[in-house]
């Protein structure tokens, strides 16, 4: 069993809420305290491990832009791969030198999926399944170039019902199924944390009771408090090969 590991969680606002869990945002700003950090600190004290977890916004608002969709990971990590930062964002060649576990995700606008055109384009920012699949396959090929690193991908976050048409929700479900049943392969260095399952509980939408409001697709503090320790346990299970 590995007793030391450096972990980075790349996220935007949805991920930040899960990072905080039940921690007040103002307390976090003052002290840096978060539920995820507390969980790992307690686990390390109890088990004699040194699992060091950090988080950061990826990509940042500037200069790249507040976009963390399939195109953006493909754009930064595949199309602009190498030992130089791309628009002030670390490539995999850079970030894998420092971290043993890399966690990444998309925020809920990833679920605003348009119909396919029949002409998929890997270099398109259009949110379409045909483009997502090409971009995901290219990302996976790149991740497999770093077998010493474990990657954890969140299954896609989804909007509450008021913010998503049924057609968009069904396409998101199709994307979710494709990730689980075709893209993911057991035995590789890529692991899926099933956030979609937790937030939908079998429905097509983020449950309103778990959101910050009927028109707000951010997870509320009650849901975040419930999910945060499950997220932490999953990371440790991945590190310890369970």
The radius of gyration over CA amounts to 17 Å
The CATH topology label is Rossmann fold
What does the average pLDDT come to? 95
Briefly, what CATH class? Alpha Beta
Could you state the order of secondary-structure elements as H and E?
Answer: EHHHEHHEHEHEHEEH
Number of helices: 9
Share in helix: 40-55%
CATH architecture: 3-Layer(aba) Sandwich
Side-by-side strand order of the widest sheet: 2-1-3-4-5
Percent range for β-strand residues: 5-15%
Write the layout of secondary structure elements.
Elements lengths: L3 E8 L1 H8 L4 H7 L3 H13 L2 E8 L12 H10 L12 H4 L5 E4 L24 H15 L6 E5 L11 H18 L6 E4 L1 H6 L10 E3 L2 E4 L1 H19 L3
Parallel strand pairs: 1-2, 1-3, 3-4, 4-5
Antiparallel strand pairs: 6-7
Helix pairs in contact: 1-9, 3-9, 4-6, 6-7
Give your account of this protein's structure.
This protein has 242 residues and is of the alpha/beta class. It has one domain: SGNH hydrolase (Rossmann fold, 3-Layer(aba) Sandwich), CATH 3.40.50. It is built from nine helices and seven strands; from the N terminus they run βαααβααβαβαβαββα. The strands form two sheets. A five-stranded parallel beta sheet has the order 2-1-3-4-5, covered by helices on one side. A two-stranded antiparallel sheet has the order 6-7. Strand 4, helix 7 and strand 5 form a beta-alpha-beta unit. The chain is globular and about 55 Å long. The mean pLDDT is 95.
């Amino acid at each position: 069993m590995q007793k030391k590991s450096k972990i980075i969680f790349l996220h935007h606002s949805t991920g930040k809420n899960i990072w905080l869990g039940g921690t007040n945002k103002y307390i976090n700003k003052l002290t840096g305290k978060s539920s995820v950090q507390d969980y790992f600190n307690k686990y390390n004290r109890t088990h004699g491990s040194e699992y060091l977890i950090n988080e950061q916004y990826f990509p940042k608002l500037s200069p790249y832009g507040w976009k963390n969709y399939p195109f953006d990971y493909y754009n930064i990590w595949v199309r602009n791969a190498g030992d130089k930062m791309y628009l002030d964002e670390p490539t995999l060649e850079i970030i894998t030198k420092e971290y043993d576990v890399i966690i990444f995700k998309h925020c809920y606008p990833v679920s605003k999926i348009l119909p396919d055109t029949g002409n998929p384009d890997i270099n398109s920012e259009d949110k379409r399944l045909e483009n997502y699949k090409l971009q995901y396959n290219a990302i996976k090929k790149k991740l497999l170039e770093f077998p010493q690193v474990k990657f954890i991908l969140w299954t896609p976050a989804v909007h509450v019902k008021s913010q998503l048409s049924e057609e968009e929700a069904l396409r998101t479900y199709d994307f979710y199924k494709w990730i689980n049943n075709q893209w993911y392969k057991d035995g590789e260095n890529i692991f899926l944390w099933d956030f979609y399952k937790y937030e939908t509980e079998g429905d097509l939408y983020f449950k309103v009771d778990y959101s910050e409001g009927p028109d707000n697709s951010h997870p509320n503090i009650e849901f975040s408090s419930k999910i945060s320790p499950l997220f932490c346990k999953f990371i440790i299970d991945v590190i310890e090969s369970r």
